[in-house]
Amino acid sequence: MKKLFILILLVSCYSCTTQTNSFDVVCDAYTKSTKQFANDHAAAFSAIKHDLTKSLAENDPAYVAWLAIIYAEPEQRYMLYQSAAADTLSSSWECKAMKKNAANIGM
């Protein structure tokens, strides 16, 4: 958990070089995939992973934060991701689809 917290902090420090809101790209992937695979969390996870690896660079803060939270405790995933997004964007961030489904989608 300590490593996860450090990773979230590193993502937060990346904010000064980020111009676009790639956190919304992650939200869009959750929205699309959880609608398409409503009853199949493994398929939704695979679809989200596919969309993100296609849409975001490996060092993108939204992607790095997503990689971190998929290994976090299920009930903490959304809160951790939301915190990383807010720190990176310097404003509040929310994603209804991720809030509803993050606990069920991960490793």
What would a concise description of this structure say?
The protein has 107 residues and is mainly α.
Structure description:
- The protein has helices at residues 2-13, 22-36, 41-55, 61-69, 77-89, 96-101.
- It has one domain (2-11, 21-104).
- Helix 1 packs parallel to helix 5 and helix 4 packs antiparallel against helix 5.
- The relative contact order is 0.21.
- It is 65% helix and 0% strand.
- The chain has 6 helices and no strands.
- It is an all-alpha fold and 107 residues long.
Overall shape: it is: globular
The Rg value, from CA coordinates, equals 13 Å
Task: Please count the helical segments.
Answer: 6
- Estimate the mean pLDDT confidence: 88
First-residue to last-residue Cα separation? 14 Å
Structural class computed from helices and strand pairing: mainly alpha
Taking the sheet with the most strands, its summary is: none
Helix-residue proportion: 55-70%
Low-confidence stretches: 15-19
Oligomer: single chain
Strand fraction:
under 5%
Number of strands: 0
Order of helix and strand elements from N to C terminus: HHHHHH
Task: Give the tally of structural domains.
Answer: 1
